[in-house]
Design brief:
- The protein is mainly beta.
- Helices cover 4% and strands 43% of the residues.
- It has one helix at residues 84-87, and strands at residues 5-11, 23-28, 35-48, 53-60, 73-77.
- Strands 1-4-3-2-5 form a five-stranded antiparallel β-sheet, with no helix packed on it.
- The longest helix is centred in the C-terminal third of the chain and has 4 residues, at 84-87.
- The protein is globular, with a radius of gyration of 14 Å.
- The model has no long low-confidence stretch (mean pLDDT 88).
Length: 92
């Protein structure tokens, strides 16, 4: 689990808004009701010309033993970290 990361293709036009350490929200297709916190770990320094995209690797902050290699996921790049209150405003 320590080494698992999500790989996401980011379009060249959006790349300027992605920074190392930037908070992310990860939603795995296999666990649609669970949203996990993550952070940008690395921006791979080569692009894919055919996709006009650059690969970004996101590390997991939240751990879940159900996460396995090669699972598909959706990543949202956030402007600020998700706190407990923003994740579940009904809990106090």
């Amino acid at each position: 689990m320590e080494s698992l990361q999500v790989q996401a293709d980011v379009s060249e036009s959006s790349l300027s808004r992605v920074k190392i350490g930037q908070p992310c929200e990860i939603q795995l297709d296999a666990l649609p009701d669970r949203r996990l916190r993550g952070a940008v770990h690395i921006v791979v320094p080569t692009g894919d010309r055919s996709k006009a995209a650059v690969m970004v690797k996101i590390r997991f902050i939240d751990r879940d033993l159900r996460i396995l290699p090669e699972m598909s996921a959706k990543v949202s790049f956030l402007s600020r970290p998700i706190t407990r209150w923003t994740r579940d405003p009904g809990r106090r």
